[in-house]
Amino acid sequence: SQFENSAAAAFSARQNRNDFEGDQQTSESVSPAPTGTTTASTATSGLLKKCLPCTGVKCVPQIQCPAHVRMESHEKPQICDLPAGKFGYCCQTGQNHTVPRSVSRERRTDFPSFLSPDVLDEARRNFEHLMHGVAQIPVRRGLPDFSHGIVFHSTAKEDLHNFALSNNALEQVFTTQLFSKKEQVPVDDIITNNVPVKFTKTPLAQHCQAPVICRNIRSVYRSHDGTCNNPLPARSHWGAAGQPLERMLPPAYEDGIWNPRVHSTDGTPLLGARKISRILLADIDRPHPKYNLLVMQFGQVLAHDVSQTSTVRLEDGDLVQCCSPGGKVALNPQQSHFACMPISVDPDDEFYSAFGVRCLNLVRLSLVPNPDCQLGYGKQMSKVTHFLDASPVYGSSQEAARELRSFRGGRLRMLNDFGRDLLPLTSDKKSCPSEEAGKSCFKSGDGRTNQIISLITLQILFAREHNRVADILSQINPSASDERIFQEARRIVIAEVQHITYNEFLPIIIGPQQMKRFRLVPQHQGYAHDYSPDINPAITNEFSGAAYRMGHSSVDGKFHIRGEHGHIDEVINIPDVMFNPSRMRKREFYDDMLRTLYSQPMQQIDSSITQGLSRFLFRGDNPFGLDLAAINIQRGRDQGLRTYNDYLELMGARKLKTFDQFPSEIGQKLARVYRTPDDIDLWVGGLLEKAVDGGVVGVTFAEIIADQFARFKHGDRYFYEYDAAINPGAFSPNQLQEIRKATMARLICDNADRLTLQAVPLAAFVRADHPGNQMIGCDDPNLPDMNLNAWRL
Ligand code: HEM
Ligand SMILES: [Ca+2]
């Protein structure tokens, strides 16, 4: 076509390596603008030629059309114009990363199309041996590893269910491995889901997930577990709790199935995650000039709303330990559990060597059975609803919600602590490192709530908001039932969370360009119409395993708790408030913490990670903790993420050929830990990029995050901006206008104790000392306020 040349020109015009940290050049390099065939006018979008509009399909950014990576150049989709002057693809393949059968290369067809009893038997025996033949060494309470386990905990009952599910999935994966080895199935066929051998009619079929039956597809309220959101019966499970993570690109496993990548592209062993963390990701204090720690903290709440993986467990549900006591050495392969993937520590490690530590525990993520009930690669499980639906407040199942409700006036249960509402205390020993009375942990809809005290603060804030809304609704509607008030208040809180996310939070992270290109900007008026039942709202491995972990770089190692008049009262090292909620019982702490969050700058998102996370994570009473940076790198390999270069290609950028394309200091360090630029782990590569204009992350993370939030919006029938033609629980036009007044600033004021907090920055995520922002009194009429009179039921 006539666009081929221009597409090719545009691809090669792209990216003079000016996206990297430290490089002073400024340039527009998100993605190439179409150049037509001739001109040198790429810089001024006003002079650009228009592309033909797409016929019958949508124009999307390249990253949302992942099959293009595998296409021959003559098959590449037609290019088209996107908002904000960029170009995209007329995408036939949608989010599918594989090319449809008709255009893909020949597939080998000479392997059997069914599973023989021999293979099934042998796989069964292997699996039994793996499950029972290994040392069952659990993790001791009090160790950092125990707290690490808690971040994968939901409720005891849900854990048990997921554990069984994951074992079923593992048996399917081991069977796939055996079959593929025996039949020499090409890796390429496995990673593109191109092995149509079914588990149906084998004993493994009972492991396949039963379809979700929806009794009422027009329910006004979204379900707690996320089922029945998509109106098509075959897709009722999309986005539900317990469903697999999706992928933008096929997995990078050594065998294509589940064995983690351990080799560099040149065949030599990859360097360990801890070494990369030590050499590349130092701790340097770089406060962000514009944004405060509330961005970090709200960001983590969102992370927990949309994703919670979990790890493989021992037979009785206990956590797996892969290192000898004290981390002296990794257990030998015969002794250790099959899901072990510990991080090795060099003897010359400038930190851990002092403690003789050579091994950091890491257990691989648990899986879900193959959704198509056929042979395939391992698919990681998320235990929470993928949708952005305030699940940390309400839980991800009906039962979880029931435990949180008071069943009076539509309210959530709270602990009344001398007149202040805090979250109720948990009686679940598995969700708290301490069994001591008085050190007990809080309970919410998310098992990770106690992970850090600033997170507890926001969890309390959202629970209070629910009850605040419920109380007003009860006043306006004295005869409405508890159930009605609860669900209406929940619907309003979810809408507030969504509005604040898309209106205030997300533009800060990904910048205005990406907001426009991915059609994420909220409307000021009227309803939105861009729902599509073809969009799978599921979390991608790339998002949860790498891009959205950018937040770890925004964490400051200390909280500077200020008194009401600005002087610093207390400096808290973050490891001291991880899984240690006791300070929350101090009367003024909640207000003080909120003030700290909006006044203290967040750390810039770059290659610096605080030692609070990279040395002392979850240290508790121990002299050392875990390294979250190393964990992130190792986790990416566990999840089969492809390397950084592959995602550059996916976005339409050119791959890096040499380390010199980075600023020299970074390039030299990279060369110490990677053999070739093709080996760079996604999380690492993304952190090294310079932030996009008006955002805080580099272009690669910005695009992966934008794609994910596009899924949450365009793939959620209950999204707050949709009308009754789409959303059975649509807001009336009046109600929607009220939701649009919700701001983070108002949320803080409405739910503060008002002991030491009487004012907020008007733009709550922006430092109050930043030009253009200002403090505003909580009672000031200029602080917008939702009027709940629009909810006379
Ligand atoms: C406040 C301090 C924080 C701590 C101590 C922390 C700790 C952790 C830990 C221990 C994990 C599990 C790691 C693994 O084994 O793979 C994790 C996962 C994750 N974190 Fe953080 N984190 C923090 C803040 C944040 C922030 C601010 C964000 C984003 C803005 C974030 C995003 C994520 C994501 C997306 C995951 C993966 C979740 C999953 O899918 O299971 N975290 N974090
Ligand atoms: Ca959710």
TrEMBL record:
Low complexity: bias regions: 31-41
Gene Ontology MF term list: heme binding; metal ion binding; peroxidase activity
Annotated GO CC locations: extracellular region
One Pfam match: An_peroxidase
Compartments in which it is found: Secreted
Record carries keyword Heme: yes
Keywords: Glycoprotein, Heme, Iron, Metal-binding, Oxidoreductase, Peroxidase, Secreted, Signal
InterPro entries, per the entry: Haem_peroxidase_animal (IPR019791), Haem_peroxidase_sf (IPR010255), Haem_peroxidase_sf_animal (IPR037120)
GO biological process: cellular process involved in reproduction in multicellular organism; response to oxidative stress
PANTHER family named in the record: CHORION PEROXIDASE, OXIDASE/PEROXIDASE
Name the UniProt record assigns to this protein: Blast:Chorion peroxidase
Protein source organism: Drosophila guanche
